[in-house]
């Protein structure tokens, strides 16, 4: 549990990336030393990993869920106990079927399998995957090649090699492998997989609206006025971005306001992207959306907005409880946590057209969606200029959740070789370059704006081209070697 809990220090906002290798090695070492089939060792490791790493979920439950402390702690324990099942599965499969000396070959494949399951079972929760911890290490150079998934597998292989070392020769071999992995990652990071294309001046607004005020009708007008006021000095930008649900009214109730912003943006020769909620009276469906106001193409002479125009994006990957409630007839009456405002959204399509704003093509992801690389990849095309992600992390207070969220977004930029713009309600609003490095960011819990020149790119990274087939194929190859050696030793 202690080694798992220490993993938190490897992630943002602590950035102690060497801790990840050491913590994993200690976990695998305990796997070898503890009796049993490995399931308990993996589960305890996972319990520490998620118990400390996603402790920010407790802020959402305790502050906004309306549950007493004992109930919120119990829910957190249940969630962490569930997530710990996945490393438990990886540890179990590895110890059950392979001798310890073969774990460096077998564990990466078992780990990838368990993490793949974690990414889609019960809609998926791939948060805090260990590869993210290496985004600021020399292994960063492997992100455009292997993706975060592959970096996780590489880290697990190195940790297992370190863990099973028992004499001077094996320690030297492990040290050499680690040195090669990190040095080659640094070398790979010097290569440009994509080429610069055009530079645009982009601005983002951070309203810093308290979560307790976001869906109070009396606060609609002050919130909308605040965003207009904060935007006044930004109209000379090529693109302006407001965060998730920045406009707190349903779209059909905000048509006059949207028309005004649309006309102003077109008059100023720019475009504005904002988050808003849309409701269809006929189908009774609700979408968490992004829509474009002002100029769609740079050659347009007027704004193009009209209700239900197709230059919009509807969130696909919804957050359980926060945006949809499973078994809602049973759960909603139990506690305020299961009956939060805006918790009955409908899903948009997995793959949608890029937003077109003043001639700039943007691949969108709303909040939690940025943690799903395959979905982001499906929406980044050869002519996509940048990735846009918007969020409202006010749910997480002053915890380390928002910092982890930004780190996840940075990984998508590095994987796809595209710059990323991230607008949030109360932080962390940031610009990220195509290598996943933060260009500039706004301080949390402050209302304000930020501008930066963003250079778009063309071309495809190996990970964008091959996806998880490359790291998956490599781990299967290692697994095949482990199986062959295991059978040879048994005969």
TrEMBL record:
Primary residence: membrane
Keyword Cytoplasm listed: no
TM annotation in the entry: 6-29, 41-61, 67-93, 105-130, 142-164, 171-189, 463-484
Membrane-topology descriptor: Multi-pass membrane protein
Record's keyword terms, sorted: Acyltransferase, Cell membrane, Membrane, Transferase, Transmembrane, Transmembrane helix
Localization in the cell: Cell membrane
All copies of domain CN hydrolase, residue ranges: 205-456
Gene3D superfamilies: Carbon-nitrogen hydrolase (3.60.110.10)
Protein's pathway: Protein modification; lipoprotein biosynthesis (N-acyl transfer)
Domain of life the protein comes from: Bacteria
EC number: 2.3.1.269
Pfam families reported in the protein's UniProt record: CN_hydrolase (PF00795), LNT_N (PF20154)
Keyword Transferase: yes
Signal peptide annotation: none
Main EC class the enzyme belongs to: transferase
UniProt-listed NCBIfam families: lnt
Free-text function comment from the UniProt entry: Catalyzes the phospholipid dependent N-acylation of the N-terminal cysteine of apolipoprotein, the last step in lipoprotein maturation.
Stated family: Belongs to the CN hydrolase family. Apolipoprotein N-acyltransferase subfamily.
HAMAP family (alphabetical): Lnt (MF_01148)
Protein name per Swiss-Prot or TrEMBL: Apolipoprotein N-acyltransferase
Source organism of this protein record: Alteromonas salexigens
Phylogenetic placement of the source organism: Bacteria, Pseudomonadati, Pseudomonadota, Gammaproteobacteria, Alteromonadales
